[in-house]
Amino acid sequence: MGIEDASMRNGRALSDQWADSVVVRPRTTEQHITVHKRLVLGFAISILTLIIVTAIAITLSVSFERCAAESSGALAANGSSNSKWKQSRDGNISHRDTEDGQQPWRHLRLPATLRPRHYDLRLSVYMENFTFSGEVNIEFECVNSTKLIVLHTDRLEVEKVLVYSDSKKAGAMRIQRRFHYQPKQVYVIALHREMKPLRTYKINITFHAHIEHELLGFFRSSYLLNGERRYLAVTQFSPTHARKAFPCFDEPIYKATFRVSLKHESSYQSLSNMPVEASTSDEDGWVTNHFSRTPRMSTYYLAWAVCNFTYREAVTDNGVV
């Protein structure tokens, strides 16, 4: 009774003192809730960061695979660099050049940016080892602005390339790089500056190749005469095999005129689409026949032969030989 009276006199009971001793518990609970919220927020940020890093890694991996694929394509396109005729500068090819975000040499058809007008083709035919060397001058028109010249070649070893403009500026245009893309049988010349529409340009290409032992392109055949085997070299360009004999726009849609010159040993004779316009003889026993200019036609109509056949000739009533 005395204790209770003392407590009452002080204005506080024992229960009030006990309540004071536990009044801090609600504040402790709020602190725990705040800590938990921070942990959850940190965990969420960590998960989000992990997702972002994973996405970046996947993107970089895909980009790396694409670059690797392009590099392997470039190596495959230059797989013939071990050939004794291959130019070393043709081996260091990068296929990163793009035009309007594309690589036209990978397409099935040639780009429609250029249109050939005339070919001046000169060939030297060596029947003793079945090889030939040549030089072609192609006059073409630029239809749309471009830095790229893409034309067909197949099994040809390109030695030298020069590009000229019809402008008053003398000298050849600067070539950035050139390479052969075998999967599509095309040769690509990338210039430093663009060619302009409605202007005429010329490209000069020197090359050499084998006279193949097959029935396509410029090939060889043989026959027996009195027990002696004789050889001849003829062409079969249809439908798309002119590219095996000289660099050209080897699609039927690209029509142009052709002027052909064939140099060979005097023991052979040569024929082509047109009659011989002029013939010259060298002191070493070689003959060069210059044939007249053809009508405008597709590349697969062009033909020639180097042989030692004899022939008969007749003239129609209209004067056609």
Summed over residues and divided by their number, the pLDDT gives a mean of 83
* Quaternary structure classification: single chain
Main sheet attributes: strand count, strand direction, barrel closure: 7 strands, mixed
CA gyration radius, whole angstroms: 40 Å
- What's the total helix number? 3
Largest sheet: spatial strand order: 4-7-2-1-10-13-12
- Give the termini separation: 152 Å
Proportion of beta-strand residues: 35-45%
Low-confidence stretches: 11-15, 71-101
Helix fraction bin = 10-25%
Going by helix content, strand content and strand pairing, the class is alpha+beta
Order of helices and strands: HHHEEEEEEEEEEEEEE
Number of strands: 14
Shape: elongated
Task: Please tell me about this protein's structure.
By secondary structure, the protein is of the alpha+beta class. The strands form 3 sheets. The chain has a 7-stranded mixed beta sheet with strand order 4-7-2-1-10-13-12, with no helix packed on it. Strand 12 and strand 13 form a beta hairpin. The radius of gyration is 40 Å and the shape is elongated. It starts with a helix and ends in a 14-residue tail after the last strand. About 11% of the residues have low confidence. Keywords: Membrane, Transmembrane, Transmembrane helix. One of its GO terms (molecular function) is peptide binding. This is Aminopeptidase N-like N-terminal domain-containing protein.
